[in-house]
Each structure stands twice: as C-alpha cells, then as structure tokens.
Amino acid sequence: VQFVESGGELVQPGGSLRLSCKASGFAFSWYDMSWYRQAPGKERELVATISTGGFRTDHQDSVKGRFTISRDDTKMTAYLQMNSLKPEDTAVYYCHRSNYNHDPWGQGTQVTVFS
β-pairing, 109-113 with 10-11? Predict the structure, then answer.
C-alpha cells in the first residue's frame, strides 16, 4: 500500500490549490478515502472523506464550502480542491485509506498560505 501526495505550494490568502493523491497496492475503488492535515505543533486531523463511488462526502466544519474532496477510480487518485485558502490552512496534507490506521503514510504535500 502506498500513497503519493502532490500539488502543495505557497499561496496567498484567498487562493486555490488542487491536491492529488495517487494510491497503489490495494483495490482503490473498494474503499472510502480521506484527506488529513497536520499543522506545525499540532496533531494530524481529518479534513474530508469520500465514500466508494463518490456518493457521499464529509468535510470538517472549518473547510466546508471551501474544500471539496473527489476521486477518480480509473486513475486510483483522490483529489482535494481547496478554494478561499486561509493562513490557518497551512499544513502538510496527507491522504489515506479511511479507517485503515495500519496503512503506511505518504510523505504528504506542504501547503503554505501566507500574506
């Protein structure tokens, strides 16, 4: 099992980014997928989750209306569209198979929102 995140950058407040997560080593379409983030000095937190088939999504309250999780099962890839970025969104972002805590974590992708 492997996750490779990409798309993080330095961006100004109000900007947008689209993160990608390429998964491998398991039947991607069979599992819910999640995005997490970890800010400096803080614990890793759940940002958003998408069900199999993309029929249901859940987003943390702080990102609702700004972030959108999606998936493309043909590419074994999950996405996180982030709009109206705020400095408090600064963190390393990770994707993971939902509820599979023993899966290894990827290297993450750094998102820095600065003014």
Answer: parallel
Tell me the Cα Rg of the chain.
13
To the nearest 10°, report the CA torsion of 36, 34, 25, 79: -90
The dihedral formed by the CA atoms of 11, 79, 99 and 45, expressed in degrees to the nearest 10: 10
d(Cα 57, Cα 59) in Å, to the nearest integer? Answer: 7
Closest CA to 114 of 87, 81, 84, 78: 87
Q: Contact at 8 Å (CB) between 2 and 25?
A: yes
pLDDT in tens, 12-56: 999 999 999 999 999 999 999 999 999 999 999 999 999 999 999
Phi, psi of 7 (to 5 degrees): 105, -10
